[in-house]
Design goal:
The protein is of the alpha+beta class and 310 residues long. Helix content is 38%, strand content 12%. It has 2 domains: 16-135, no CATH class; 142-301, no CATH class. Strands 2-8-7-5-4-3 form a 6-stranded mixed beta sheet, sandwiched between helices. A 3-stranded antiparallel beta sheet has the order 6-1-9. The two termini are 17 Å apart.
Length: 310
């Protein structure tokens, strides 16, 4: 059997939401010791900041009001010798960790990529106590995002690799961002519904109601195995075969693709498109990749069939 593949970004690099109701473990946070102002952050301090960050993020995603400054003041009462500026910067580090693991982050805290491994460990501990967080999906209806904003793929923007790209790739591997998105069937179905609504809306606005009737959700109607999820059309009637990949993360979050999907992309390269949906927790948007995929991404084997020798 041919290996499944992980798509990790451009070839040059070689590499509304239900969680609002998640309750935080009562063991988090615990009492914390006093730290020197310039001393490395302890595990207990990191745990406190991480738990508080997720409380704010949960409120933000569910539309609840909260005060970033108020949260910072409460943290300063428990983190002696840590300034508000230090706490604010630590939050930016946390935004970078969440970007790397393929999730959304707090707006207003631009990711800062000089991340300590101990902070990644603190996020891993929090997620271990709150396992439903990453598997939850936003409470979106297709009409909320149709038509989607379709932008050029990251590899066609003529921009240099973003700051922290290598660090983000490492975090994505550690937290298996691509595998998690692949296993989250509810997230995948949401993305396919959004893509289906988008295709029908585009055709309707182009005056092609005759084609709208023939747009099909293939993976839902016929099951997986066709090598694409949506059978649609361009306004001129040309066939479009869309393999939809969905993430709550940013545009460069890696994803998995099967050997069958790759084969179909090569056999029907004029019709097949990789339809990448990202940032579905906030403002769903997408880009398309046309075959050959190797022109845009690095294909890394991730699984092999181990058969016994004769």
């Amino acid at each position: 059997m041919s290996p499944a593949c992980l798509l990790t970004g451009d070839i040059a690099a070689s590499p509304a939401r239900k969680e609002a109701h998640i309750l935080h473990d009562t063991r988090w946070p615990r009492p914390y010791p006093v730290a020197m102002a310039n001393a490395p952050w302890t595990d207990d301090e990191n745990d406190l900041v991480v738990a508080d960050y997720f409380r704010m993020l949960s409120a933000d995603l569910s539309g609840q009001s909260y005060s970033k400054a108020g949260h910072a003041r409460q943290l300063m009462e428990r983190l002696e010798n840590r300034s508000q500026a230090a706490i604010e910067y630590k939050r930016r580090n946390l935004s970078a960790v969440l970007q790397g693991l393929g999730d959304t982050w707090l707006h207003g805290y631009l990711p800062a990529y000089n991340i300590q491994a101990s902070l990644e460990d603190a996020v891993a501990r929090w997620l271990a106590h709150n396992p439903d967080w990453l598997d939850s999906i936003p409470a979106l209806e297709p009409a909320d995002a149709a038509p989607l904003r379709i932008a050029p793929p990251p590899t066609l923007t003529n921009r240099p690799l973003p700051e922290g790209h290598d660090k983000m790739s490492g975090i994505a591997v550690r937290f298996d961002a691509a595998g998690r998105d692949e296993r989250n069937r509810a997230l995948g179905r949401l993305g396919e519904r959004l893509a289906l609504a988008h295709e029908r809306t585009v055709l309707t606005r182009a005056g092609r109601a005759d084609l709208v009737r023939d747009v099909r959700w293939v993976s839902q109607e016929d099951g997986d195995g066709a090598g694409y999820d949506i059978a649609s059309f361009d306004p001129d009637g040309a066939i479009r075969l869309l393999e939809v990949k969905t993430t709550k993360g940013y545009a460069r979050t890696p994803f998995r693709i099967s050997e069958n999907e790759l084969a179909v992309s090569r056999e029907r390269h004029a019709e097949w498109r990789l339809f990448r949906l990202w940032d579905v927790s906030r403002t769903p948007q997408a880009f398309e990749l046309a075959p050959p995929l190797e022109a845009h991404v690095s294909l890394l084997p991730t699984q092999y069939l181990a058969d016994f020798r004769q």
